[in-house]
Amino acid sequence: MTSEEVSSFNRSCFSGSLNELVVEAARKRQDILVQVGLEYRYMPPVAKLMNIVKGGSLGQIKMVAIREHRFPFLVKVPDIIDNAYVIVEFDNGSRGMLDLCMFAEGSKIEQEICCW
Fold it and tell me: What are the φ/ψ torsions at residue 52 (nearest 5 degrees)?
């Protein structure tokens, strides 16, 4: 990404009324740390997939699976979850699954997203 793209990406992460409320609340209290992590919805391929799904051409999605196996980019710290299988069941019967491994040095494909 160019520095301009990174700047645009960062601005998009903090747009929206909920994010603005969180930032404003943090400004009022010096004893609070606000930490923002990567959200898949801001990644260009995921944003494109979301637009396709919202367009309705795929029908109703029953399951979304994301596999993220990447090299370790941080020093290993105790009590940090760096691998997990997470399944979320939604009220409409759809499911989401995350397969996360943050110490997969030899991975050729870091992320895969599948919808059914």
Answer: -65, -45
Return the structure tokens found at 58: 């795929």
Flag whether pLDDT at 95 surpasses 80.
Answer: yes
Q: Has residue 24 been placed in a domain? A: no
Model pLDDT, residue 9:
45
CA 26 to chain CA mean position, Å: 22
Amino acid at 72: P
- pLDDT digit string, tens, across residues 39-60: 787 888 888 998 999 999 999 9
Q: Is residue 53 part of a domain?
A: no
Q: Is residue 89 part of a domain?
A: yes
Residue that is written with structure tokens 């895969």 in the block:
112
Three-state DSSP class for 10? helix
Report yes or no on 104 lying in a domain.
yes
User: What letter does residue 102 receive in the DSSP assignment?
Assistant: S
